Every structure is written in C-alpha cells, then in structure tokens.
Inverse folding.
C-alpha cells in the first residue's frame, strides 16, 4: 500500500527578511543561555541563520528548541515585531539591533519597551539610553557579543542590574546599583564569547 505523501509547507519556500533572521538569532541566544544549545551549536546555527534565504532554512535551526519556554517575544502573523506597551509619543519601540561585521547604534530620542535584543557578531552595537523614552518599569537588554562588542550607556538616575557571563571576554562594568525613586530599572543579561559587553553611567547631555 503506497504511503501517502505529505504536502510541502508552502511557507518554507518563501524568502525570509532581515527581521526573520534577527528573530532566529534571539531564539538561539536564549536557547544557549538556558543551556539548550552548547557554544559550538550556537555558533554553527548562528552562522547558518546569517546566510539563510527562506523560512524553511530558518525553521530547521529552531525546530528542536523549546521556543515557547525561552521568553522571546514572538511576532503576530503579518508583523515583524511585537510591542507590548503603548508609548506616549506614539513611536514604535526599538526592540532589536544586530551588528554582523558592521556597526549599529541606538541613541537619541528613541523609545524602548520592556525588551531590547542586541547582538554583535564580529561587529559593534552602541546603545545610548540617556535621551530614551522608557515605557516600562523594567527594560531587559539581552546581549550576545561574539567576537564583537556591545557598549551600553545609561543615565545616572536609573537602576542597573548586570547578570551576564563571558568566555574569553568581558561582561559588566561599574554601572550596577539602585536608581532614583520612580526611575526605571535596566537589566543587562546574556553572554560575551571572545567579545565584550560594557555598561556605564553617564550624565545626560545638556540641552541647548
């Protein structure tokens, strides 16, 4: 008796966008932090995610992972990002920055929500939150620095909690500590593999 064939998922042939590859990097980073992936497995899959062209290629990298338990915000159908707060300014929050052999930044009058994912793979991410609009009491910055660097500058009045780890690199800074009453708290988590994540406090720039 012939075995019935399962029709191929037409989605697997669709071309993926940069936002889709960034989402997979977030899932892989969270899986490694949780212990579901080893360092070598993370490196291998991250490299494949960078060059993946279709959803099918990306799905293969996460099919065996407990995605629902990793705490990565998943987009709704038809959307590339998820905003779980409504900023007073009406701007969409900055949620992802990926530097792949390049440099990217978050600075100026930007809006941030409860999560910001920063990944530097042989590149640099510069995050300056001194003029940012905070829309949640706690902002968690999830970092992955692989042979790259992530610099985070925060204003002096916020609370800072740094909880990442490093292998042949550095993760930390001297910014940890409580903030002023009513000010938001910034949690910095993740890892640095032959790279560095540095968090520092700096006074706000005077307005002219």
């Amino acid at each position: 008796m012939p075995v019935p064939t399962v029709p191929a998922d037409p989605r697997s042939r669709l071309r993926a966008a940069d936002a889709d590859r960034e989402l997979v990097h977030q899932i892989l980073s969270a899986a490694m932090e949780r212990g579901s992936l080893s360092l070598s497995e993370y490196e291998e899959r991250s490299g494949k995610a960078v060059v993946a062209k279709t959803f099918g290629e990306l799905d293969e990298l996460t099919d065996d992972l407990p995605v629902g338990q990793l705490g990565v915000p998943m987009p709704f159908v038809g959307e590339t990002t998820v905003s779980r707060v409504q900023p007073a300014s009406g701007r969409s929050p900055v949620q992802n920055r990926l530097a792949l052999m390049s440099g990217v930044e978050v600075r100026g009058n930007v809006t941030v929500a409860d999560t910001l994912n920063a990944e530097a793979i042989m590149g640099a991410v510069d995050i300056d939150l001194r003029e940012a609009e905070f829309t949640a009491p706690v902002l968690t910055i999830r970092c992955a620095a692989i042979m790259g660097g992530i610099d985070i500058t925060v204003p002096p009045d916020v609370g800072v909690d740094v909880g990442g780890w490093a292998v042949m690199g550095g993760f930390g800074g001297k910014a940890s500590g409580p903030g002023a009453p009513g000010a938001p708290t910034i949690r910095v988590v993740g890892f640095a593999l032959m790279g560095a994540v540095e968090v520092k406090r700096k006074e706000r720039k005077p307005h002219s």
